User: What shape does this take?
Amino acid sequence: MLIDFLIGFGAVNSLPHYLFGRMNIGVLSLFGHSAKGNLCYAAFCLLLSLGLFAYKYGFNSIGEHMMLVGVLCVVFAYLVLWSFVNRHLRKDP
Assistant: This one.
């Protein structure tokens, strides 16, 4: 049960640190306060989550864990669409 918590925690925790890194907000992470540190921590959390999932369940059973698939879809959408959102939808004062 603890490993399931860590899988979910890592996957969800990667999203805010990715956003902090992309927005150059200095938030403390495992790798420091910098934007690069937050981006590295986001990647670390996501890879840790995927690694723990593969260790416990194997990637063949990912279809049985649709909550994790949903979280990963949101995280992936931010990774892929951030440049578009930042370029076209953001209005700077």
